Amino acid sequence: MTDDRWHLDELDLPAYLARTGLAARRPSIEALDELHTAHVRTFPFENIDVLLRQHPGVQLGAVAEKFVERGRGGYCFEHGTLFAAVLERLGYDVERHLGRVGDPGTAGRTHMTVVVTIEGRRYLCDPGFGMSLLRPILLEHGAQDDRDGWAYRVQRIDEGGAGAAWRLERFRDEEWQRMHTTDEVPVRPVDLVMGHHFTSTFPGSHFTQRLILARHGDNRHTTVSPEGLTTRVPGRPTTRTDVAAEDLPALLREHGVTLSEEEVQRLVALWPGMLDAA
Fold first, then answer.
1. Shortest CA distance to 262 belongs to which of 249, 250, 272?
2. Domain count along the chain
3. How confident is the model over 184-200, as pLDDT tens digits?
4. Which CATH number covers residue 264?
5. What is the domain extent for residue 25?
6. Rounded distance, CA 159 to CA 167, Å?
7. 169 has which bridge partners?
8. With contact defined as beta carbons under 8 Å apart, do 153 and 169 qualify?
9. What is the C-alpha separation between 15 and 13, in angstroms, rounded?
10. What DSSP assignment string belongs to the chain?
11. What would the pLDDT profile of 43-90 be if each residue is shown by its tens digit?
C-alpha cells in the first residue's frame, strides 16, 4: 500500500524513466545505484525559480512537471521529493529525512535526503546536494564509497536528546570535509513545505541571493555561481573561470536547464547584482 500523503499518483513514472534513459527494474542495490546515478546526471541542481520569485512549490505534482516535462532541475527538496516518489512507485522501502548543512550546532534543517532499506541494510541517497553522491552509500558508521574518484564517508554521531544522526563527508584537499548531517526524525509533507519556505524566502538564505547551478558530467563536476565556473575532476586541481552576464545563456544550455527567453533575460539582469555581492 502506498502512502497517499505524498500523492504518488501525481508522478508519471514512465515519463521519468524515459527522461533518465532507464527501464523499470525490481528493487535491488544494483538497480538503486543505476537510478541514483541517472537522476543526478539527468537533472541539474539549481535555484533559478527562487531567484526569479516564481517557485511552484515542492509538492510532487509541481516538481514532476518542472523536472520531467519542462526539462528543469531544482534543489534538495525537489530532488528528494521526486526521487523518493520514484522509488516508492518502484517498490522500494523509503524514508524521507531532513538534515543540516554545515555545523549542526547552528544550521537549520534545510536539506532533504532519502534513506532506502534493501535486504535489512539502510542506504543514504542524496540526489539533491550541490555536489551530490553519484550513488547511495551504506548508512553505517565508517562506511566509505569511492565512485569514479569521488570519495565519501558516513559517520554516526550522537546529538544527545535528539538521538543519533549521520554525518556525510567528502574527501577533498587531502582531508575529510563535512557536507551535512541527517537526523532520524520522521518527515511529513508539511516539514518539506516549511523547509522550502525558509530557504526560498528568508533574506539570509543564500538561495535567495545568488545563482547555484551544478551538475555531474562524465568524470567531472561543474558549478556556475557568481564566483565563476568551477570545474572539479578527481585527482586534478580545481579550476575556476569568471562568468559574465553574456555567458549565462550558453552555460544554462550546457547544464541542461531549459528556460524561456524572458526567464533567461530576467536572470541575466540579476547577474551584476550577484557579482557585486560575491
1. 249
2. 1
3. 999 999 999 999 999 99
4. 3.30.2140.20
5. 4-277
6. 11
7. 153, 178
8. yes
9. 5
10. ---GGG-GGG--HHHHHHHHT-----S-HHHHHHHHHHHHHHS-EE-HHHHTT----SSHHHHHIIIIIT---B-HHHHHHHHHHHHHHTT-EEEEEEEEES-TTT--S-EEEEEEEETTEEEEE-TTSTT--SS-EE-STT-EEEETTEEEEEEEEE-GGG-EEEEEEEEETTEEEEEEEEE-----HHHHHHHHHHHHH-TT-GGGTS--EEEEETTEEEEEETTEEEEE-TTS--EEE---GGGHHHHHHHTT----HHHHHHHHHHHHHHHHH-
11. 999 999 999 999 999 999 999 999 999 989 999 999 999 999 999 999
Residue 23 has pLDDT above 60, yes or no: yes
- Look at residue 158 and tell me whether its pLDDT is greater than 90: no
Mean pLDDT of 98-118: 93
Return the pLDDT at 3.
62
Collect all residues with Cβ–Cβ distance below 8 Å to 218 and sequence separation of at least 6: none
Four-point Cα dihedral 222, 30, 92, 70, nearest 10: 30
For the cut 90, the answer to whether the pLDDT of residue 173 exceeds it is no
For 159, left (φ over 0), alpha (ψ -120 to 50), or beta?
A: alpha
For cell 562524465, the residue is 218
- pLDDT level of residue 218 (50, 70, 90 thresholds): confident
